[in-house]
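Record Cyclin-like protein, 239 aa.
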Amino acid sequence: MPALQYNQWEFLPSELNDTPSHNDGINKDTEAANRIKSCNFLQAVGNQLQVTQQTLRTACVYFHRFYMRHSMKQYHFFDVAATCLYVACKVEECPRRLNDFAEWCTKKAKKRDNLDMNLKENRDEFNRWREILIHNEVPVFEALCFDLYIEHPENYLEDMQIQWNATDEEVEDTYWFLAQISGETFCLTHEPKLIAAAALLVIMTFSSRTPANATIETAGLPASVVRQLASQMCKCRSL
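=>
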């Protein structure tokens, strides 16, 4: 029998209670809330920079993986979120200028898109973000072990649409739903294909078109497991 391939980025749910942040005195709920806020922050910055959705997805996965190696007390979560987006832009061949990054990080951190960047206090914050992005880039690469290719759930939706006879609207809504829950840690505990199936099941159920178990299993996944994960997704605090 061939040996099972080890994946350093798949964790047991119990391991999420034993993260560096938790061991550093940050409780589970606070860490979870910080993950959600940070993914929302990087998505807000990324949308202003007009990066691709693939880049945003990759950045969120990088972010979640980083904090399985480091504590939020050691690296502030917004700083790491911005840096993960900066790195993802390079990896996904969607580069943006450092100054543009620093400007939008400044504006989104202050929640003021019309911020006057000529004011000294804002220029100081702009320069601080520049330094953060430059300084944190290497620690992010190292925490990720330079393992930069990400397989996303969205990659499976085209085939599942055919297998499950899902509508274009349902698939479109599934893309939206996956973006909404990107601050959750499903990417650390479940394989991308299972995440895709569970998300599509959630959307089809809301459309009153819940697929039968036999239909779900055409994706090569146990229906009970897909349904269990879909139930968890419906309870996400980020929704």
